[in-house]
Amino acid sequence: MAVYTDVGVEDLSVFLDRYDVGKLLSYKGIAEGVENSNYLLHAEGGHFILTLYEKRVDAGDLPFFLGLMEHLASRGITCPQPVKGRDGEALGTLCGRPAALVTFLDGMWMRKVEARHCAAVGEALAKLHLAGSDFPLRRANALSVAGWRPLFNASAGRLDSVQPGMHDVIAAELDTLEASWPRGLPEGVIHADLFPDNVFFLGDKLSGLIDFYFACNDMLAYDVAICLNAWCFEADGSYNVTKGRALLQGYAKERPLTGAELDAIPLLARGAALRFLLTRLVDWLNVPPGALVKPKSPQEYFRKLRFHQKAQSVQDYGVAARELA
Amino acid sequence: MAVYTDVGVEDLSVFLDRYDVGKLLSYKGIAEGVENSNYLLHAEGGHFILTLYEKRVDAGDLPFFLGLMEHLASRGITCPQPVKGRDGEALGTLCGRPAALVTFLDGMWMRKVEARHCAAVGEALAKLHLAGSDFPLRRANALSVAGWRPLFNASAGRLDSVQPGMHDVIAAELDTLEASWPRGLPEGVIHADLFPDNVFFLGDKLSGLIDFYFACNDMLAYDVAICLNAWCFEADGSYNVTKGRALLQGYAKERPLTGAELDAIPLLARGAALRFLLTRLVDWLNVPPGALVKPKSPQEYFRKLRFHQKAQSVQDYGVAARELA
After folding, report:
1. What CATH code is carried by the domain that includes residue A275?
2. Over the stretch B31-56, which tens digit does the pLDDT of each residue have?
3. For residue range B141-163, what is the model confidence (pLDDT) as tens digits?
């Protein structure tokens, strides 16, 4: 939860002059997102989300993110749509930062995930992968296997202060994944951060996907593995096979998984767990004094990693390979 | 800025069942207020602010606050209106906390205050005082002169760590104010916290007042003194007589000040500065580790206090007494 940049009415009014959204009526900083400053904005032309991209976001990536949202929306995926200025440009500058206006989506994210939500997310993820298949821009995944060792090195000396023995487990895991990370699986645009707070529901119906600021090109099945981590564990750390089954079946209904993808699921899930473990460790070990943001616990992803290390096949995730291919 | 309580969709839906606002469409935690958790909520019936009252608010005071907003709105003051449940009750319970829904007000608060804003605030404050004159409930001001010594005692030993010499200045000031605090001035309902972030404008027009959670019964001119502190100083600490003049004239246009009130302005302004200085000191000296809320600087109000100590009469605030009475 964060608002890093306090925007004044005067600056905001100048910024909005570029857009056909009518007069500004109100704006409130919202406690969502940890990378950027977000405002819910009401203008005569409707409700919007105003995002100021803070320094953790590379401005060079913004055309990819905004272009992707526009592309997906044009393919029927409900996601925020960048609002273009009268000059045709979605991206502007506000308070010295790159900034954009996107349409506001109704819907709520589920604090209590149930299997039917997992089914809906699996289905939506597959649709996103299909809709993204002809998106022309590319962005490498900086947080895939090649990016993990630098993150490990940044925290290595302090890992055992978080949990005794963590250093050796992660070091060995990194060696394993670097040696055996899957290659040659189907690739495309992935969301890469489709956690419950990025998926909106209205009643029982999935109503929209948000936060495309980690989206990139990578193996599609890696995105599935991220969702298995994010959606299918209980608060006590246990894996819920019913949720896993629902998510995988929901996905495969829209986009059947190849045999090679199914074989790779346990390894991809280990990689996904390690990726979130490592970034959470960096955040956890580097909280600035007086920080407004409370980092998320790394232990959660250490436990998930330990689960995946014991998994033998996709069957351990709740469904037999023959049911999905 | 704060959201202390994360509300789940399930709990919120149960809470909303009491109200005729239609289906819930979205809600977002907003980064406003330091005492309570606030959500901007969109339902079929409109936009609302949902407030969960956290432990710093005395639940016994809530009928006063909510009743006051309803009373003022019925007298033409634009302020949030509590939404009543089908049982006629505005106050409910959510996530174990007292909670209420109020109407959403458009408008923005001014980061860059100009004299015309001060004139509008003075006028609105006087109208609020007049509209509150027949409000039947009463609430004592816990943060008036009798409440200051306990706050001083809570921080006394550490004041010189904030600024050398601060302890003796505040101790002497407290003795002075306790001995000479005005009595017998016109009393009524005061807002007691009408800072710029609690006053909305649309264009040049003041469009609404919010945050009545410090409102109480006290001397009306003390509320004017609070506003002089909150609105009429520049960022460099200097007092702006043009703004002070605008604020006092705006007020007096709606409610002429008595001679005794005008004479008391410098002393009331000292008291108001001391009140905010003391609560900011308590917050500043008691930041819990990992706090999500960054306390406001106490020094700002120490400088304001030093200004008021040198003031001789209301003339030092920008306008001659004969122009206001």
Report:
1. 3.90.1200.10
2. 876 678 999 999 999 999 999 998 87
3. 999 999 999 999 999 999 999 99
Q: Would B215 be classed as within a structural domain?
A: yes
CA distance A37 to A29: 8
Q: How confident is the model at residue B289 (pLDDT cuts 50, 70, 90)?
A: low
- How close does chain A come to B78, measured CA to CA in Å? 15
Is residue A108 situated within a structural domain? no
Global pTM reads 0.87
Side-chain half-sphere exposure of A242, counting CA atoms within 13 A: 6
pLDDT along chain A (325 residues), means of 10: 77 95 94 83 96 88 96 96 95 95 96 96 98 97 96 94 95 98 97 97 95 96 98 96 98 97 97 97 80 76 97 95 82
Q: Are residues A76 and A193 in the same domain?
A: no
pLDDT of residue B55: 81
* Interchain proximity A26–B107, CB inside 8 Å: yes
The DSSP bridge partners found for residue B200 are B208
Considering the domain architecture, whether residues B158 and B294 belong to the same structural domain is answered as yes
The number of domains in chain A is 2
Distance CA A65, CA A212 (A): 6
DSSP letter at B21?
S
Q: Which of B23, B27, B28, B49 to mutate: most A Cβ within 10 Å?
A: B28
E strand map for chain A: 24-29, 37-43, 46-52, 91-94, 97-103, 187-190, 199-202, 205-209, 216-219
Beta pairing class for B91-94 and B46-52: unpaired
Query: How far apart are the CA of A178 and the nearest CA of chain B, in angstroms?
Result: 36
Residues A51, A13, single domain; the answer is: yes
Q: Which residues span the domain enclosing B23?
A: 9-103
Burial class (CB in 10 A: 0-12, 13-18, 19+), A40: buried
Same domain membership, residue B188 and residue B64: no
DSSP annotation of B33: -
What ipTM is given for this predicted complex? 0.85
Give me the CATH number covering residue A23: 3.30.200.20
Which A residues in the span 10-69 are in contact with B, Cβ-Cβ below 8 Å? 10, 23-32, 40, 42, 47
Q: In angstroms, what CA-CA distances link B278 with A121, A300, B298? A: 51, 42, 8
Do B217 and B290 fall into the same domain? yes
> Which residues of chain A have a CB within 8 Å of the CB of B2?
31
Q: How does residue B177 score in pLDDT terms, banded at 50, 70 and 90?
A: very high
